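Lesson 9: reading folded outputs for more than one chain in a single document. The general rule is that every protein is listed as its sequence immediately followed by its structure tokens, and records are never interleaved. Here is the first one.
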Amino acid sequence: MTEKTMWIIVRAIITLFAWGAGGYVLHGFEYFKAVDEVDNIIGMLPVALVITGAGAITAILWMRRTKQFIPVSAALALFAVLSITLFPTALRGNWWINMSIVEGVEATPDLTVYAPFSEGSKTAKLGEKSTLALTGSLPVLDGATALYPVYAAFAEAVYDKDSFSQDYVLCTNTRSAYEAVIAGERDIIFVAGASEQQMAAAKAAGADLRFTPIGREAFVFLVGKSNPIDDITYQRIRNIYSGKTANWNTLGWNKGGRIIAFQRPEGSGSQTGLQYIMGGLPIQSPQPLPDASLIGTNSLMKQVSVEWRGVQPAIGYSYRYYATTMYANPDAKMLRVNGAEPSLENIKNGRYPFAADFYAVTNGEPEGNSKLLIDWILSEQGQELITKTGYTPVI
């Protein structure tokens, strides 16, 4: 075999590797699954960068080795390096200066109606005396807004009324509750699973988070009531939130215009729910809104029904109980996913694909009254309160 032949073989192998690696990357980020539904320039950029990078490497390998082609080779090498460098940014569509999820004072439901031992409290009640009565050092509770009615009902059922104060049952939201239990400022928090960042923060602080599943809930996707689409597939949700699909006409609504995909801040329970659904697929960074007024009340439950140019083009997400009971928006509707409604029955039988456990979380193995409370929550009475509140029991 001559040296020339050997060099041709080497170049061919490197070329095949470059294109094969590019194809493997695009497959891993589901571009082949969404080949018919990538409908926007931002969503196409990762594909363009892979083609540009592999094409530049191929051209460098196969062009003549003469002085006149040195500038061209250098330019192609720059294109290849830029393609590789910009690829992570392109995956997240993160091209906008200072673009982030707008955070501020969010409109929230009135939680005082669920406060334990308050007059006219809406907390679920047992039809009999609780088998557990806690006295002495009462566990300090905190958690997600959507779960406050559940753990408020637990406290009202088992805490000694004379020893109770509202400082024992707080509701600061998922992100703050995790921070507090990691810092040792709460005994039990009631939340969805932790995000990667929250687990990393716990590890850095030397906290040993213990997760006890106590109930199940559906993670739901919502659109405006006038949106004609009632059913969406799991894959299309992934396409929307990874930035591949940006227009409603791709999903069959020709007059819908651009999809406005709202998100929640990092560390919130619903954002962590979206991250679980997306798996390892990068979530697209928030894109500029057509108009700043669409931010509205800074509540996703309200934002999802905004109108723009005569249509309701938004999509968002929440948990079923919060969206239907605690902070319902009559101008929004929940979507079926893969043909299944997020009903209690479908959560139980597993037909609805986005049903997940929620947890009682402690820093270390629960002890004393905290252990007694968690054990009781997993008893028939505790699970009854979960059911009566409107969630799905785990037992």
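And here is the second record, again sequence then tokens.
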Amino acid sequence: MTSLLKSIFISVFPIVALYFAIDSVIHLLSHGISYRYIGRLILASSIALLFIMIFIRPVARTDANLKAYTLPIAIGFLISIVFGGIIENDINGSLPSIGLFLGWILYIKWYSVLGSRASHKIIKLGYKLPEFELQDGERNKISTSKFKGNPSIFLFYRGNWCPLCMAQIKEIASLYNELEKRKVNMIFISPQPHKYTKSLAKKFDLNFNFLVDHENKVAKQLNIFAKNGIPMGFQTLGYDSDTVLPTVVITDNEGKIIFADLTDNYRVRPEPKTFLNILDKQNI
């Protein structure tokens, strides 16, 4: 139930913020200065800007609390409540600002958090990564046993719809020559439809492995499955409602896990050079 609420929340919250940002502009232009609307505009537009920028200029990671956005959001909230609600004596008119501010807190502290995965029982340093079967863009079966003999980086990403995932893959692609020098198998895995994985592989056109975890079978096997992890509405583009938790696993030549990043926040992800450092420490 919680995951379904998150799916709905992340689809509705940015739209609500954008609505109140536009509504505030219209009100200020039509009726003149109002502190509760000025505060609401700062608050709502800061929230809307975050989500717009994520898609226009995607980044691979952010800090957990999004301090650059939280500061103006807090300022806008205070202006709306203190000057609008108290000085202008219109607390009811400040209710949208209260709702937006609570929504922001929910986004930071509830939606973004994946829960602690530190005590994972399958993906652990020193353990062998279980063998599993994937599919390529043409639905050909690919067993992970084919990657033994060389170090491998397995990156589980949510899908082409996820701008942070796409930025992360782009970063790794920029290290292609370094990875080739170390003879690393780079394996990108997503449960998304095959056509999206195929188009992604074509876009980068590198000696990487872009594979599909059909029906999230591997995600369930490795306990990194995200029930209702897709924002509500993306199903119309052919995506399933379920996806995978962002995860990175590096194995040595024999398939032993030498690094694992099981982030507890979908916006907090490792720097790509971290992977090279891990490989170099293993003299790979």
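What the second record shows: The first strand starts at residue 133 and ends at 135.
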